[in-house]
Amino acid sequence: MKLTILGGGGFRVPLVYGALLGDRGEGRVTEVVLHDLDAGRLAAVTRVLTEQASRVADAPVVTATTDLDEALRGADFIFSAIRVGGLEGRANDERVALAEGVLGQETVGAGGIAYGLRTVPVAVDIAQRVARLAPDAWVINFTNPAGLVTEAMSRHLGNRVIGICDSPVGLGRRIARVLGANPREAWIDYVGLNHLGWVRGLHIAGRDELPRLLADSELLGSFEEGKLFGVDWLQSLGAIPNEYLHYYYFNREAVRAYQQAEKTRGAFLHDQQARFYDEVGAPGAKALDVWDRTRAEREATYMSENRETAGAGERDADDLSGGYEKVALALMRAIARDERTTLILNVRNRSTLSVLDNDAVIEVPCLVDANGAHPVTVAPLPDHATGLVCAVKAVEREVLAAADSGSRETAVKAFALHPLVDSVNVARRLVEGYREVHPGLAYLR
């Protein structure tokens, strides 16, 4: 089976390849094609993968190319993990937003909109090429903002594109662990949009154990989300929010922390990964060791500003293990082998949430089989969550409309309607600021 990875020179590709190395089942991936626009990054990541493969007999064969059409032809599965504008673009997203006093995080608020505006046109081009060159392939979208990009691609690929994120999986795992349960045996009642969802129940052997957690202040305050959001707020909500909701519930504190940080997250990763690619490219470098060391630093500093604001301390060691690659492999196995499973995924709503139309991409538990991912029926969201979901989905639709039409005014509308942008004038300045630093937004006129 052939797997194509778009963004194949990206730092997290070795996580995916490592997961593939552990798969010895029938019908496994035997060929991996890496595609990237940067030949140097491709060469560096290929070195890491070669060292990974040296430890495993009959490892999937890896090839690399800068030709997109060549990479897509004959693919059974396509992982889309691109970053339009690179980490320099992410750092600029943060900088422009923070100068206006609003959040610049890569998927939430102004930064997420800017990232979406320059990513959607590229993702749509990829989707159109896939439809033409690999119509039977399944696309698994890693590219952020994951829900928005998946919805853009679904307009051309239908249900054959599925978005994934490790945040809901990690959240469910932490809740199960603190309750003393096996995460594999738990049914997680989770619903929302990507980076905007809530766990409303965690069922083990048919019994919802979440009320027990919410009633125990000591237990509730003992894990990541309890430390991040605070026990009182979680008990008021009656649910456990995705960690990214910290940007909404504690926006002022988060913006201040990012403004005061020595470096934004994007700037930190830009410098860190530049060092990584330089080190791996040096003669005699132990590429896998360099990658392991860099990854450990990256994971340990994840959302560090939010945790500092909340006094949450360092991340637990159990939370430094990634997750995207595990979700992707489970999804691919379920489709390729009809190994039926349940995963939290980004898929078309159909009739799952009545407040959204059928084509809106949501993040929800899905039953997965050879025919793809099928969202399960869920209870309606409470009003406070419904309001946020509908507001952010409306923003996503304006981003899609702006990307389709090239309308600067529609882009302004997308920024102005977001709950974390507090002025139409700020929205106008954001559009102008982003157009100045991102050549990929020159289409907005």
- Computed over alpha carbons, the radius of gyration is 21 Å
Q: What shape does the CA trace take? A: globular
Question: How far is the first residue's CA from the last residue's CA?
Answer: 44 Å
- CATH architecture identity of the domain at 2-163: 3-Layer(aba) Sandwich
Mean pLDDT: 94
Number of helices: 20
CATH superfamily of the domain at 2-163: NAD(P)-binding Rossmann-like Domain
Secondary structure category: alpha/beta
Low-confidence sequence ranges: none
Strand order of the largest sheet: 3-2-1-4-5-6
Largest sheet: 6 strands, parallel
Q: How much of the polypeptide forms β-strand, as a percent range?
A: 15-25%
CATH fold category name of the domain at 2-163: Rossmann fold
CATH class of the domain at 2-163: Alpha Beta
The number of strands is: 13
Offer a concise description of the structure:
By secondary structure, this protein is an alpha/beta fold.
Describe the structure in your own words:
This protein has 445 residues and is α/β, with parallel strands linked by helices. Among the domains are: 2-163, 3-Layer(aba) Sandwich (Rossmann fold), CATH 3.40.50.720; 168-249, no CATH class; 253-310. 51% of the residues lie in helices and 15% in strands. The protein has a 6-stranded parallel sheet, sandwiched between helices. Strands 7, 8, 9 and 10 form a 4-stranded antiparallel sheet that branches. It has a 3-stranded antiparallel sheet with strand order 11-12-13. β2, α2 and β3 form a beta-alpha-beta unit.
